[in-house]
């Protein structure tokens, strides 16, 4: 049965048969019996070496970094030692590499091309944390969709996104890649992003040529790195893991994601990449995940410095037996697995199962039918940075901006700027930065294509005299350029100060111990304030910043994150009032780094804060409250909430209840409000958080208009893990809270009976 010609004939017939077989019996994962048969038939033909090749992922810009350094990854592609490539893109380049695999390998198994398409491929969208501030899941799906269309046109099949790690520590630079601190919001956005990447809302299957397979990362609890230091240890109770950290991964998988990336960190003593509890017990057995697990880069190799294995062989053994299917870049599977099988430390059936999972996805993606399905360079050009894509980027940027503060001066709110304004000083090191508008993980995007704030303002205020001065650099201590900025300010009617971080100050390996505005920027801000001119602070940053002085002293503050290609246009529209800001914080902004971790869904403690009692849970030198609470965000209009009511005041544990509230636009212009629905279980067998988000709705209201919003509270919403770690609804009183921010709600009480 090892005769190559016979084999090839058999294989071609089999593939042809498979390709023509009907798609009936499609299961919810999109796989079907025909695919399973094709996978089995192909697997039966493969040597152990070929199987291991399918479990090996190489970067195209580095050679494998494993124990035996190799050069010439293309030779390895030709000899079938590689099943997938990342960091290679463009239709032409991926086609070239694909040809090497198809034309040179015995079984002609196509390569899978992956890339970190995190917030846009060529058209850049706001950093994910910023986009989460839109609380707009349709928007998140749409931007992921655009990213997928562009990435697929450039030859990619697979994105290492969405990143769904819950993060409660803004020192951690990777907080910028996720959706913030809340499991409910994080789950909704995780699912939306998966639907967007995979075109699920449009009824697409993975075989469509404009979708990319999502990879949920980083599994699990990477966001809980101690002290916010990247790659650091995580240690938490199973309750916190399951209630806070796991829900977004689960939501992404339920939405249809069929690949998962195992995290760098150890969790409760076991590195995530060698963690059977996570990768097999939870992911596959509890959640019925049918896709494959890829490591995060060299996370198998890193189990050696984690000190749980002595060498590469032990690392590989631990990883594959725990449930890892594909080794990214580390070379451990490539160099160790065959030996481990021979030694009986890894069974061939374990390898087969991993290969099956990878091949299944390759079949589902239609790679065997159309290995060059993404090689069309005309299509690539036509689908990249189209006017429509740029419009989605602008829309996302607008909706991500959060108006943190907008005081009145002589009876008038500082923002929006009057259309008659004559002279505007635009100062600060981020005011004319294009590249920084991208934020972290903007791999294939071109910073030169971004609109800076200065450009956006010039376009929007053509009649105004715009004075620009950089003032200082982002992160050094020179004050030499202060004077020019002060002079510009002194001549202006308003000062727009664009301050914050560089885009490299968040993202991977970008933890900060001080989360203030870096360098001398705050000194510049203080000087600008002394001019007596109204100052608008436009913050650009990838994480929550601690800005107690600015929050106290600067009358208007706009949180503009890193908004992507159309950043400057979107900010100018908001400053001008063409777009009425609608973003709400998806994460708490602390007053000081010393308060971290600070999150809205904390527990009460046995000694909740009482300012009159020293022996209660608080600090000597700072309040417990955040600078800006989770869910906070202002508008140029105002909203009033009233008549919070329950359909019935008492329900049984198995019943659901509707909760309604009236929201009125009490200002003078149309606006968008995001109503947030929280609960608190007042007495339970285990302490419950003082607030837990259970729903949110965005509503457009004209001036004076009132709408009634209704949320449904289900038994699922009331469930939690009891002392025996069983998910239950317990009878008792539930505080119901609805409002425009976690720190501003109306409340009522619901009774839950047995
Ligand atoms: C390491 C990062 O942690 C991960 O998020 C990314 O997908 C991989 N590198 C591949 O670039």
Brief summary:
By secondary structure, this protein is of the alpha/beta class. The strands form seven sheets. An eight-stranded parallel sheet has the order 9-6-5-4-3-2-1-10. It has a six-stranded mixed sheet with strand order 11-18-17-16-14-15, sandwiched between helices.
Distance between the termini: 66 Å
Global shape? globular
As laid out across the biggest beta sheet, the strand order is 9-6-5-4-3-2-1-10
Give the number of helices: 22
Query: The biggest beta sheet, please?
Result: 8 strands, parallel
Please state the structural category.
alpha/beta
For the record, what CATH class of the domain at 387-595 applies?
A: Alpha Beta
What amount of the residues lies in strands? 15-25%
Any overview of this molecule?
This protein has 754 residues and is an alpha/beta fold. The protein has 22 helices and 28 strands. An eight-stranded parallel β-sheet has the order 9-6-5-4-3-2-1-10. A six-stranded mixed β-sheet has the order 11-18-17-16-14-15, sandwiched between helices. A five-stranded mixed β-sheet has the order 20-28-27-22-23. The longest helix has 17 residues, at 4-20. The structure holds 1-deoxynojirimycin.
Architecture blueprint of SSEs:
Layout: H1 4-20, H2 33-45, H3 48-54, E1 56-59, H4 73-78, E2 84-86, H5 91-104, E3 112-115, H6 128-132, H7 137-153, E4 158-159, H8 183-197, E5 213-219, H9 238-245, H10 247-255, E6 259-262, E7 266-267, E8 270-271, H11 276-286, E9 292-295, H12 312-322, E10 327-328, H13 332-342, H14 348-364, H15 377-382, H16 387-400, E11 402-406, E12 408-409, E13 412-413, E14 423-427, H17 453-460, E15 465-469, H18 482-491, E16 494-500, H19 521-530, E17 535-540, H20 548-553, E18 556-559, H21 567-576, E19 639-646, E20 650-652, E21 657-665, E22 671-681, E23 692-701, E24 706-713, H22 715-718, E25 720-721, E26 727-728, E27 732-741, E28 744-753
Parallel strand pairs: 1-2, 1-10, 2-3, 3-4, 4-5, 5-6, 6-9, 14-15, 14-16, 16-17, 17-18, 20-28
Antiparallel strand pairs: 7-8, 11-18, 12-13, 19-21, 21-24, 22-23, 22-27, 25-26, 27-28
This protein binds 1-deoxynojirimycin.
């Amino acid at each position: 049965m090892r005769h190559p010609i016979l084999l090839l004939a058999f294989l071609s017939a089999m593939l042809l048969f498979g390709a023509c077989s009907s798609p009936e019996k499609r299961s919810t994962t999109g796989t079907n019996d025909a695919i399973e048969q094709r996978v089995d038939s192909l697997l039966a033909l493969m040597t152990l070496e070929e199987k291991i090749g399918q479990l090996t992922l190489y970067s195209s810009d580095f050679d494998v970094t494993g124990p035996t350094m190799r050069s010439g990854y293309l030779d390895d592609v030709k000899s079938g030692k590689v099943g997938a490539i990342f960091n290679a893109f463009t239709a032409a380049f991926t086609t070239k590499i694909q040809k090497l695999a198809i034309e040179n390998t015995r079984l002609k198994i196509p390569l899978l091309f992956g890339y970190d398409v995190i917030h846009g491929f060529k058209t850049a969208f706001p950093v994910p944390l910023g986009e989460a501030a839109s609380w707009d899941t349709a928007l998140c799906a749409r931007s992921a969709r655009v990213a997928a269309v562009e990435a697929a046109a450039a030859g990619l099949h697979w994105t290492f996104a969405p990143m769904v790690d819950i993060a409660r520590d803004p020192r951690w630079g990777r907080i910028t890649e996720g959706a913030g601190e809340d499991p409910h919001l994080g789950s909704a956005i995780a699912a939306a992003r998966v639907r967007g990447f995979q075109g699920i809302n449009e009824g697409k299957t993975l075989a469509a040529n404009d979708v990319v397979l999502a990879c949920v990362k980083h599994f699990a609890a990477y966001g809980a790195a101690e002290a916010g230091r990247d790659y650091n240890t995580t240690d938490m109770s199973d309750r916190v893991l399951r209630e806070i950290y796991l829900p977004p991964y689960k939501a992404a998988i339920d939405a249809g994601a069929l690949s998962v990336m195992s995290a760098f960190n150890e969790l409760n003593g076991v590195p995530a990449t060698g963690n059977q509890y996570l990768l097999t017990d939870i992911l596959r057995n509890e959640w019925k995940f049918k896709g494959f697990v890829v490591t995060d880069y060299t996370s198998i190799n890193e189990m050696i410095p984690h000190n749980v294995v002595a060498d590469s062989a032990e690392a590989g053994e631990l990883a594959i037996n725990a449930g890892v299917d594909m080794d990214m870049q580390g070379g451990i599977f490539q160099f160790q697995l065959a030996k481990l099988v021979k030694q009986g430390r890894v069974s061939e059936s374990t390898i087969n199962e991993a290969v099956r999972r990878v091949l299944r996805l390759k079949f589902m993606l239609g790679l065997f039918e159309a290995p060059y399905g993404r090689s069309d360079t005309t299509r690539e050009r036509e689908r990249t940075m189209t006017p429509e894509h740029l419009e989605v980027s602008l829309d996302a940027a607008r909706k991500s901006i959060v108006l943190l503060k907008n005081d009145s001066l002589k009876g008038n709110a500082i923002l929006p700027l009057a259309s008659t304004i004559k002279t505007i000083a635009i100062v600060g090191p981020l005011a004319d930065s294009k590249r920084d508008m991208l934020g972290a993980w903007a791999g294939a995007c071109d910073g030169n294509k971004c609109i800076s704030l200065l450009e956006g303002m010039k376009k929007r205020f053509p009649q105004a005299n715009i004075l620009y001065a950089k003032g200082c650099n982002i992160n050094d201590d020179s004050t030499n350029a202060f004077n020019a900025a002060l002079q510009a300010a002194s001549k202006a009617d308003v000062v727009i100060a664009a301050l914050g971080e560089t885009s490299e100050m968040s993202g991977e390996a970008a933890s900060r111990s001080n989360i203030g505005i870096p360098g001398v920027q705050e000194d510049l801000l203080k000087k600008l304030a002394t001019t007596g001119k109204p100052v608008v602070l436009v913050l650009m940053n990838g994480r929550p910043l601690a800005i107690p002085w600015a929050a106290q002293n600067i009358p208007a503050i706009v949180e503009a994150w890193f908004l992507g290609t159309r950043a400057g246009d979107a900010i100018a529209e908001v400053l001008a009032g063409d777009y009425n800001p609608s973003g709400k914080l998806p994460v708490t902004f602390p007053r000081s780094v010393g308060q971290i971790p600070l999150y809205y869904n904390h527990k009460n403690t046995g000694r909740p804060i009482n300012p009159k009692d020293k022996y209660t849970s608080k600090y000597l030198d700072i309040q417990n409250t955040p600078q800006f609470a989770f869910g906070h965000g202002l508008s140029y209009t105002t909203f009033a909430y009233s008549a919070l009511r329950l359909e019935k005041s008492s329900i049984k544990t198995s019943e659901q209840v509707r909760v309604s509230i009236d929201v009125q636009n009490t200002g003078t212009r149309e606006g968008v409000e995001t109503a947030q629905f929280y609960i608190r279980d007042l007495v339970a067998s285990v302490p419950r958080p003082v607030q837990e988000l259970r729903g949110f709705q965005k509503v457009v209201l004209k001036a004076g208009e009132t709408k009634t919003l209704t949320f449904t509270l289900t038994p699922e919403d009331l469930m939690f893990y009891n002392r025996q770690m069983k998910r239950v609804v317990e009878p008792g009183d539930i505080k119901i809270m609805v409002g425009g921010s976690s720190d501003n709600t109306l409340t009522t009480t619901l009774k839950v009976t047995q």
